Structure formats: C-alpha cells, structure tokens
Amino acid sequence: MLTGKDDERSSKNLIEAAIEESCLRFHQAQKAHAPVFPRATYYRKTPRNFTGLACRTNKTLSFLAMDSVQFHQFAEGLGVNVLARKDKTAVVIFNAVDESSYLLEAELSKGSLVDFIVNYTEGSLSRSLRSTAKKPIALNRYPEINSQNCQQDEGSICVPELTTDTFFSTVLDKDKAVVVLYHTPYCGFCHGVAHIFLTVARYFRTVAKLQFARIDGEHNDLPWEYTMDHFPAILFFPARRKSESRVFPRHLPVTVPNLVNFVLANLGPSESKLQGLIGLCAAWERGHDDKSARDCLTRVRQECLTIIANTLAVCRTTRLRRRFYLDSSSVRDSVSRHHQQLLYKKMKLLFLKLQHIKEIHLLLGSLDRLREDSRVFRIIQSIFQVYLCSFNNGSADIPTSPETESIPIIDTRQATLQGHENVKDEL
Fold first, then answer.
1. Is a pLDDT exceeding 90 seen at residue 235?
2. Could you tell me the CA-to-CA distances from 380 to 176, 268, 281, 357, 386 in Å, in that order?
3. Taking residues 29-55, what's their average pLDDT?
4. Residues 365, 331 within the same domain
5. Are both 243 and 182 inside the same structural domain?
6. How far is 425 from 391, CA to CA, in rounded Å?
7. In total, how many domains does the chain have?
8. Which of 27, 185, 356, 359 could bridge across to 387 with cysteines, CB 3.0–4.6 Å?
9. Is the peptide bond before 257 cis (omega within 30 degrees of 0)?
10. How far is 64 from 62, CA to CA, in rounded Å?
C-alpha cells in the first residue's frame, strides 16, 4: 500500500513546501519593505454617507488587492509607476466598459479612499491618461542629434517623440501643419513605415511651417477623437484648420510617393504647397537621374503658373467688388467703408503674393537641377521668409483711408537679396 510518506510529490509534502515557500517570500518582502496599512483615523467634520451607493447609482465596484512589488507590471500597463509612489501603493478604479481608469492622487487613507469612490460614482473624476516620455527602441531611426542644430546638419532630420503631455501643444499649434505617425513598439509593420516616414520628413525638412512627429499609441492615452484603432496610422493636422484633420487612406500602401502626395494634397495654402514642392525637388535630386530632377522642377514651374493664374482671377474679382463699393451711393456708410478696407487689404496681399511667386518662377526658369546647398535654393528660402513676414505684418501697413486706387507693392526681391553679395550678377 502506497502511503506517500517518503514521496516529495505527495499532496501533503507539496502543501508543506508551498507554505514554506510562502513564508520565505514573506520574510524576503519584509526585508525589502515593511508592511503598509492605511491610517485608521478619519478626520472629517461632516462624514459623507458611504452606504447605499450601489442602490443609488446601480453600479458595482469590486475590490482587488495585488502585490505591487511582484505585479507592478499591471500598474504600469495602466500608466501608474507604482514603484515610484509612496510606500509603493496606488489605488486605481478601472472601468472595462469605457476603457478608462482613474487614479487616486491623494495619500491613501480611509477618508481619501471614501472620497475617491464617492467622486467616481458621482462622475466628478477626470480620466487618467497614460503618458510616457521614454522613447522605445525602434528600427530604421536616424542618429540622435541636437534638435536645435538638426536643420543645419546635412542628411539629418528631427522627428520628436510625443507623449500625452506634449501632444496637444505640438499638434494644435495653429501656425504649423503637423504630420503624426501613430506606432507601437510591438508592431512589426511600424518599423518599416518608420523608415518611409523619416524619409518623407527629410524631403520636407525645408518647409518652415510643417512638422513631422511620432507618438506611441499603445502607451499614451488620448481623447477618443485623437485615438487610432490600428497601427501604424498617419494623421495630417492642417495649419489653422485643426478640425479638418485627414487620415492616410488605409487602402493605399504606405510608400514614399503615396505619402508625399498625401502631404502635398493637404498642405493647405498654395504657397505652402509650392514651398513643399521646392524642398522636395531639392532633396529629391540625390540618387535620381537628370530626367527626374527636370520633371520635378517642371511641376514646380507649372504650379507657379497655376498659382499666378488663380491669384490674378481673384485680383480681378476683388477689384470689381472694391469699385462697386467706391461707386455705391452708400459709400459713406460705416459698413461699406469697412468692406472697402478689407478688400484693400486683400488686394495688397494678393499683389504681394503675385510678386513673390513671380520671383520664384524666374529663378527656376533656367535650372535643370536644384540642390539644397545651392545659392538659388537659399535665395528662394529667403523669399519665402520675407513673404511670410510681410504677410503676417501686412495689416499694420494698411492706410486708414482706402479711397485711393494705388496699391503699394513690397519689393520682396530687393529685401531678399540683401546680404547676398554679387547675386544679381550671378543670376
């Protein structure tokens, strides 16, 4: 008859071994950290009624205690660095239906826990959003360089890694168009798309008002309107039109030509699209034949002519509207004078736009290739800078009486060529 007396795997011996192992872990845990219990005292002048919450709210709340040292990865999955908190203790309410979590920020005690639960049932708690500033190790990344000098180093590009804390300040910048790549460190396709994303970002590195950024969608919680349900995903947030964001079509493969066309199609104003095309041609000439470089410049010149034609059409319409207000019998009316001033400002900016596009078209007229290190490319970038400065400050130059028909034109070429010696002779 088998008694299991000397059998190490008998039920009795296994139970004793489990108890011995539990005691050993308990002694080791006491050496690592003393047991923590919440304070029993609860100082409150008017105690809240804590009973009957289930009946009043029709909600069920289950309590679960976990060893924060042994199972800290579960807390990290909810965005809580429990090992860095006091006594390695944290309280989190997790709603699986809404996929939201709420973290107790106050020190754990009976009073803070009661208030935390009551505030949750009343719906007055704010959702806790996970955010991490750690950059996951990803493949196909450019070398780490100084972000302040990255635009000056040849072949480098700055693509910041966003978090929940920095997402809105970057993406909702009204003066910049932002292209965001949503990725996860566990996504195999994201590594391949990251290389394409960085390549396109380098092509558009000279566009001043265009920013490329990335965010780990797995470890950074965002409001539902900014959350993606698949990875990788690419979103484009236009400048001054953040509500008109665009998602890269899922049915298209993420390739360099498709992503370039996606950025150009959503870049916004015609002059911004033109600047993107010029920067693309300057970066595109590396590793491509002369025909590809000429075709790229041909497209830029066609874009210039299209912008000039469209701007002239708008100028004619604006001039007719302005003359209507000048010849109207109600010209003295304050509303009419206000419309005249607005149309005068619009005419001035349109003439400024025409002149700066004309200068760029003339500079590109005799070129077969455009390089980033060429003098012509630097002059074109200076023209864009002068135009943007003049455009932003154009309202300060508007006269108070717009009855005159003369429209002053800012000489962008003369302002641009300052500081470039012998440029006129060279051109």
1. yes
2. 20, 19, 13, 10, 10
3. 64
4. yes
5. yes
6. 29
7. 3
8. 356
9. no
10. 7
For position 300, what pLDDT does the model report?
A: 84
- Domain-located, residue 45: no
Cα-Cα-Cα-Cα dihedral sign, residues 260, 264, 267, 270? positive
In a domain, 144, yes or no: no
Q: How does strand 233-237 pair with strand 210-216?
A: unpaired
Residue 112 banded pLDDT, cuts 50, 70, 90: confident
Does 111 lie in the same domain as 167? no
**Closest to 178 measured CA to CA, from 157, 160, 153, 154:** 160
Asked whether the beta carbons of 88 and 66 are under 8 A apart, the reply is no
Shared-domain flag, residues 256 and 290:
no
More confident residue, 405 or 276: 276
Question: Both 402 and 336 in a single domain?
Answer: yes
The lowest-confidence range among 55-64, 313-322, 336-345, 349-358 is 336-345
Instruction: Provide the mean pLDDT of the chain.
Output: 76
CA dihedral sign, ordered 364, 366, 368, 374: negative
Q: What are phi and psi of 384, to 5 degrees?
A: -60, -40
> Are 264 and 295 members of one domain?
no
Please say which residue of 234, 268, 302 terminates a domain: 268
Residues 6+ apart with CB under 8 A from 261: none
Residue 37 lies in a domain: no
Amino acid at 305: L
Backbone angles phi, psi at 325, to 5 degrees: -70, -30
Terminal Cα-to-Cα distance of the chain (whole angstroms): 108
Residues 267 and 272: their CA atoms lie apart, in Å, by: 6
Mean pLDDT score, 191-204: 89
Contact 276, 267 (CB under 8 A): yes
Tokens for 284, please give them.
């595109």
Residue whose entry in the numeric block shows the structure tokens 């950024």? 213
H-state helical runs in 184-287: 188-203, 256-265, 270-284
Residues 289 and 409 in one domain: yes
Of 36, 128, 126, nearest to 80 by C-alpha is 128
Q: How confident is the model at residue 37 (pLDDT cuts 50, 70, 90)?
A: low
The answer for residues whose C-beta is within 8 angstroms of residue 82's C-beta and 6 or more apart is 68, 72, 75, 76, 88, 89, 90
Full residue range of the structural domain in which residue 88 is found: 53-122
* DSSP 8-state symbol, 216: E
Mean pLDDT calculated for residue range 331-359 = 77
